[in-house]
Amino acid sequence: MTETQLRPASGEVTSPDAAVLSAVVKRFANAKGEEFTAVDGLDLRIRRGEVVAFLGPNGAGKTTTIDMLLGLTRPDSGQVELFGEAAQQAVRAGRVAAVLQSGGLLPDLTVEATVRMLGSLHPGADPETVMSRAGVTRLRDRRVSECSGGEQQRLRFAIALLSDPEFLVLDEPTAGMDVAARREFWATVREDARRGMTVLFATHYMEEADQFADRVVMVDQGRVVADGSASSIRARISGRTVSALISPQDAASVAGSPSVRSVAVRGERHYFDSTDSDALLRLLVTRTSATEIEVAPRSLEEAFMAITHAGRTGQEGPR
């Protein structure tokens, strides 16, 4: 990203925010004509250069929010701004690009022909560079229809980079990719973020949000229910998981401890959901024959389930 992209013509520094959503509401009608609210007063501010994971259960309002950020639909009330202007204007100016889960590719074209054809719409675009960054150079002569799902996702990534966007929206970007391809993809995204690109990605792979996001935003029922670093969100639910190789008799005894909330068995290991891992460790070491004991903090997935479940049941969320 160039200096001129970050500053207006006057030379005055622009807002540090890439995207601002203020009290956004979006309603739809179902097949019976009944109105429902998909996004319900959502407030969100994304700073330039952030990599933000956007998480939520099905029906939480993620896709509708992304559609409004991309200018594909307008809010019924509230404001959606990108770089201080309407989303549609930012998209038309090439400041915003997206990698969606499906569609947008012509099956009979080769990878290279696809990139070069769409690159012709963006003066100054460098098809060779974006193919290299997206990891599809070796696929240049392959027809799109012959590419795997993961390879097509990388092609969509190359297309998104053609406009040299300042804000990149990714919807399940690594679906269909193998482990190595995922790592290469995220290495490229992080490099782009270091150069100033802002990234918002929706994913069902919680480990991606945990490993690659600077910030995690969780939405449910059309509202933000958690916002912060992955570690801060994990810390909102108490306790740790202690696992060990242990006999069924000893496990049954340990399960009755006040520090154990529940027990699960996976293969040869027992997993104890513990409110006091230190007390449980002392019990396992001094009073059982447990071996290969491991203690793990709460996962982001566990936090996600606890936070969204609390919102849907009307309970107070975890602290």
From TrEMBL:
Family annotation (SUPFAM superfamilies): P-loop containing nucleoside triphosphate hydrolases
Origin: domain of life: Bacteria
Protein name: ABC transporter ATP-binding protein
Localization (cell): Cell membrane
Keyword ATP-binding found: yes
Listed InterPro entries: AAA+_ATPase, ABC_transporter-like_ATP-bd, ABC_transporter-like_CS, ABC_transporter_ATP-binding, P-loop_NTPase
Presence of keyword Transport: yes
Main location, first listed in the record: membrane
Gene Ontology molecular function terms on file: ATP binding; ATP hydrolysis activity
Lipid bilayer topology: Peripheral membrane protein
Annotated GO CC locations: plasma membrane
GO BP annotations listed: response to antibiotic
Any one Pfam family match given in the protein's UniProt record, by short name: ABC_tran
PROSITE patterns, sorted: ABC_TRANSPORTER_1, ABC_TRANSPORTER_2
Organism of derivation: Streptomyces asoensis
Location of the ABC transporter domain: 19-246
PANTHER family assigned: ABC TRANSPORTER ATP-BINDING PROTEIN
Keywords: Antibiotic resistance, ATP-binding, Nucleotide-binding, Transport
Secretion signal, residue range per the UniProt entry: none
